[in-house]
Amino acid sequence: MSSINSLGSSLLNTNYLFNSTNGTTKQDSIAKLWSGYNSYQSNAQNSLAGVTEVNTNLKALLSSYEDAKSAFNTEFEENMTNLSESASALKDYNFNVKTEGAISTETVTAEDGTQTTTTKYSEELQKALDTVTNFVDDYNSSINFLNENSSVSKRIEQLATTFSDATYRAADYESIGLTVNSDGTISVNESELAEAIVNNPEKVSSLLGEDGLAGKAEDHVDFANAQQDRLFPDAKTMLGDQLNTAAAYTGNSFANMSAYTNIGNLVNMMF
Question: CA 77, CA 186: separation in Å to the nearest integer?
Fold first, then answer.
């Protein structure tokens, strides 16, 4: 900044620069003028290099932000779509399976005499089990996704809490073979669930159907979809001071370069 002020003073002092009777003094003044100009030119070029680097980094930063936002939205939509479909399949599912032969065991004896007993389910019961486990998988996937991204915004954090609210009925779910974990996800004990479906299908339907877990999951999906465009914060909110710093630096650099150009034109006109 001192070189700018010095150069400005030299340019304004035209009597000293051009009317001096001392040729040596005039030459010294011109030399000082060019020295100041060259110094300012160097500073301006450094500013240009700086602003170019800032702009490059800023573009990369914004590109990374857009990539992250796009990836979030893609995964969000995938999770909500999958959960909505599996909840719809579970909501009105008829768990009144044929009890006779629904659960059986098969024992296989190996050549060394070791026996292995496996439990087998009828096709109808297996389909009912698959309907529940498919829903639970999608339910857990949505919870994990929201929990992993809960630090991105307050809205996502709130959604993660909303989706993890099954703990208040943990004892009821436990009675049909579903365990609610501390993070809100659910684990399935297939054998206990199979027994519950065969022995008390009405209870399973009540806990998991339209008025139970599947219906609540649909409500959560509707709530999440309604605010999708507000879940991931805008670039300025997300990047904060980095954008402000870059903008301020860019503005100053362009101002310096503009002043450099104007002074350069003036010097060329004088000489």
Answer: 21
3-class state of residue 95 by DSSP: coil
Against a cut of 0.90, is the pTM above it? no
Phi, psi of 188 (to 5 degrees): -110, 125
Task: pLDDT tens for the chain, 271 residues: list them.
Answer: 444 444 444 444 444 444 445 556 655 655 555 565 556 556 655 655 555 555 666 666 667 777 888 888 999 999 999 999 999 999 999 999 999 989 998 888 888 888 888 899 999 999 999 999 999 999 999 999 999 999 888 999 999 999 988 888 999 999 999 999 999 999 999 999 999 999 999 999 999 999 999 999 999 999 999 999 999 877 666 555 555 555 544 444 444 444 444 444 433 443 3
CA distance 32 to 36: 6
| Whether the Cβ atoms of residue 122 and residue 98 lie closer than 8 Å to each other | yes
Return d(Cα 143, Cα 179) in angstroms, integer.
Answer: 15
The CA distances from residue 13 to 10, 18, 260, in Å, are 5, 9, 19
